[in-house]
UniProtKB/TrEMBL annotation:
Biased composition (Basic residues): 112-121
First and last residues shown, out of full length: 436 to 737 of 737
Gene Ontology terms: biological process: regulation of DNA-templated transcription
Protein name: EAL domain-containing protein
Domain EAL: 24-302
Stretch list, region Disordered: 106-133
Originating organism: Streptomyces bathyalis
Length: 302
């Protein structure tokens, strides 16, 4: 499918499924060394506030610079890491890096704001919104979710960086929470109580019933990009419009914000804004990139 081919630049390098089967084995074996040798790195994709186009935060997305196979996307190795359990130390590393990066951005922006204020001889120049710390979103896999160290590790990472819990958003897929009982939800609930934001990733692709939504400690729904795709057409697919409209209404009624993934065109962006979505992410605004792509003052994007 075009989604798989175009959606992940790194998949294109290896279309041969036999080679991939062999790879799985060697990739899996290589994972621990890769973590030790710093072969993983993060890219960041901005999250755009739809009301005014401000950058609200960024999602951290892990990549692997493999010495033989080159750049690998997370779909190639996260499932393997999840299977062996390496996802736990890898996920901890991702969170640490991402939180540190968010702090660095925050400092940069503060400094830039101070300089600007001095130059213009007034302090009230930047809007309040600009001074809020940038939020960073980190993906959690099911295995991390069920690991007893999740809460203490997260708290330790935030404290070490001196970052407010509300500047961290943990993304958990809806399917990872299906069937979770109250005990299994406890760590997420504890984190939410500390002020950490919780997003339900790829929302709409799982089988969770909507009543279940009420008992999850989520603060945001991230609507899967399969729904964004239907809005691409002229006119938009009425079924998708109705679905998004309904989800937005329900989410807002429950006090949840709605983020949309995979916004690739202006048409989709304006449609989704009209439908009441709060935040957007996608190639129309920016592709995932190095942290330096955020240094230009966290500009308003289209
Ligand atoms: P996700 O969390 O749903 O992340 C969004 C994916 O959509 C990313 O793919 C992103 O590059 C891609 N994307 C963003 N905008 C667009 C767009 O406009 N069009 C299209 N077609 N795609 C877009 P990526 O980076 O390949 O990541 C794939 C998945 O891997 C993520 O899906 C997430 O589930 C997982 N992942 C990434 N980093 C981590 C991590 O650090 N830990 C864990 N556990 N999982 C991760
Ligand atoms: Mg995500
Ligand atoms: Mg997602
Ligand atoms: Mg997704």
């Amino acid at each position: 499918r075009a989604k798989d081919a175009g959606g992940n630049r790194y998949e294109l390098a290896d279309p041969d499924s036999d080679a991939r089967a062999i790879d799985r084995h060697s990739l899996t074996n290589r994972l621990p060394a890769a973590l030790e040798r710093d072969e993983f790195f993060l890219e960041y994709q901005p999250l755009i506030r739809m009301s005014d186009g401000h950058v609200d935060g960024a999602e951290a997305l892990v990549r692997w610079k493999h010495p033989v196979h080159g750049l690998l996307g997370p779909d190639r190795f996260i499932p393997l890491a999840e299977h062996t359990g390496l996802i736990v130390p890898l996920g901890r590393w991702v969170m640490e890096q991402a939180v540190r990066q968010a702090c660095a951005w925050h400092e940069e922006r503060n400094n830039a704001g101070k300089k600007k204020g001095r130059a213009k001889g007034k302090g009230k120049d930047a809007s309040e919104g600009d001074r809020r710390p940038l939020r960073v979103n980190v993906n959690l896999s099911p295995r991390q979710l069920h690991h007893p160290d999740l809460v203490p590790d997260t708290v330790a990472v935030l404290e070490a960086a001196g970052m407010a819990p509300s500047s961290l958003c943990l993304e958990v897929t809806e399917s990872a929470l299906i069937g979770a009982d109250e005990d299994e939800l406890k760590p997420l609930r504890q984190l939410a109580e500390l002020g950490v934001e919780i997003a339900l990733d790829d929302f709409g692709t799982g089988y969770s019933n909507l009543a279940n939504l009420r008992r999850l400690p989520a603060t945001t729904l991230k609507l899967d990009r399969s729904f964004t795709r239907g809005l691409q057409q002229h006119p938009a697919d009425p079924a998708d419009v109705t679905f998004v409209e309904g989800i937005v209404t329900l989410a807002h009624a429950l006090g949840l914000a709605v983020t949309v993934e995979g916004v690739e065109t202006e048409h989709q962006a304006s449609k989704l804004r009209d439908l009441g979505c709060d935040t957007a992410q996608g190639w129309y605004y920016a592709r995932p990139g190095p942290p330096s792509s955020f240094q230009q003052g966290f500009a308003v994007l289209p």
